[in-house]
Amino acid sequence: MKLMSALLLFGVGHFFGAYMFYFFHRYIFHGPLGKYPILRSWRARHTEHHRRPADPGRFFFPWWVNLTIWALAAGVFFISHSLGLGLATFFAYYAYRHQAAHAGSDTRSGRHHRSHHYGRPNANFSGAYPFIDRIFGTYKVVPARINKKR
Known about the structure:
By secondary structure, the protein is mainly α.
């Protein structure tokens, strides 16, 4: 029973991280919350990522955002090891999937993310799991092959 609880909390942490990313991406980076003064710099950084999506220096969050994310995961870890590990695994997985998508990965999540950059900036916000966009009604069909703009 203890193992089942740990696995459940791990999954909750992982998918809570996925939802957090979706929320930030949709409502702050592309949406109305990004217009508030305290969040403008976050939105501006993301807008720059969209302007130059092939620039590896624009793939990841600034150091202070990464520090905040990992501090949050560490704080949650002290409350619940399983929940904190789940949260941390999402952000590690997202970082891997995001880089792979920009490197041309021909996986479903790679095509999904590139379609957000190259033609559907108001859809396909999930950085790692296309089914999250289906849940929230922001999924748009992704062509079989999405190529980078050169």
